[in-house]
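Tokens as discussed.
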């Protein structure tokens, strides 16, 4: 990693943000695309094929956003259940569009053997403004904890608690982008009053697993399926990806429960976070979406 010398334009270096700085940050955010047109309209077009339920609504001064979850209609309580989440970080486009593509193109092919619960866009404000955080400058993917500070996380956790399903697997769809270094990591350091260090952005697809339950064969099966669509990220000169040592090609791991990551949301035996690199000269947006779909299919094939 290399030290970032650029000073973020909000706040005082070395001093964590207060409410004034958070308000200044929020005022600088603008809507860049439409959740209604790019997400909700696609769900509405599939309404006759799936059980699509509004499980809550985000209420911010920045706007109100209905939230949706998708389940297969031929739900069989005897079948194992797979959870798919997208848009935990709203700016990670293929996480959202990949989840929608999986629902539309693939989900029905596997419902004889599995039930599916899919949250295609947990953070619609982040999707519209292309942000990692929610309007409170909170990172949802560090907030899957008791008494969560993020509405996005609390609403999903409440829904799943009421659903009462034991999940066999969970695939959480993410991206690693160049803007992680140019915007989001400097902003985080400024918010927390810390010195920023950037990491090397991997060119390609990789996975993040749970270091306390690292199912190597499961991750290997997903990577093999994704490799049919796009390239797998190579480790850097330190044998790392984003500053973490690789467990095998295309895989790193963290103690996900301790960090409040989305894949700690359930007690699923098999859980992984995907990471696609949309800024790669070797990948198109369509390819990134299909890579996300391939990751879910790789999970399914491993479990069959």
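Sequence:
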């Amino acid at each position: 990693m290399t030290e970032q010398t650029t000073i973020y334009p909000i706040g005082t270096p070395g001093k964590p943000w207060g409410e004034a700085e958070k308000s200044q940050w929020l005022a600088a955010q603008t809507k860049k695309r439409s959740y209604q047109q790019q997400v909700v309209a696609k769900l509405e077009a599939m309404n006759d094929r799936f059980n699509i339920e509004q499980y809550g609504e985000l209420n911010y001064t920045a706007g109100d956003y209905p939230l949706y979850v998708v389940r297969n209609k031929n739900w069989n309580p005897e079948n194992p259940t797979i959870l798919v989440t997208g848009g935990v970080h709203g700016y990670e486009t293929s996480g959202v569009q990949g989840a929608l593509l999986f629902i539309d193109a693939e989900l029905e092919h596997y419902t004889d053997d599995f039930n599916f619960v899919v949250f295609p866009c947990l953070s619609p404000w982040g999707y519209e403004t292309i942000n990692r955080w929610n309007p409170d400058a909170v990172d949802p993917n560090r907030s899957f904890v008791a008494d969560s500070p993020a509405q996005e996380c609390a609403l999903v956790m409440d829904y799943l608690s009421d659903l009462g399903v034991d999940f066999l697997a969970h695939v959480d769809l993410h991206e690693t982008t160049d803007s992680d270094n140019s915007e989001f990591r400097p902003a985080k350091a400024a918010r927390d009053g810390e010195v920023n260090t950037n990491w090397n952005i991997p060119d390609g697809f990789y996975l993040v697993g749970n270091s306390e339950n690292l199912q190597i064969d499961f991750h290997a099966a997903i990577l093999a399926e994704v490799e049919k669509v796009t390239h797998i990220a190579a480790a850097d000169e330190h044998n790392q990806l984003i500053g973490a040592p690789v467990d095998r090609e295309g895989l790193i791991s963290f103690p996900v429960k301790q960090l409040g990551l989305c894949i700690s949301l359930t007690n699923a035996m098999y859980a992984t976070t995907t990471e696609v690199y949309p800024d790669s000269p070797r990948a198109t947006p369509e390819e990134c979406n299909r890579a996300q779909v391939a990751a879910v299919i790789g999970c399914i094939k491993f479990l069959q």
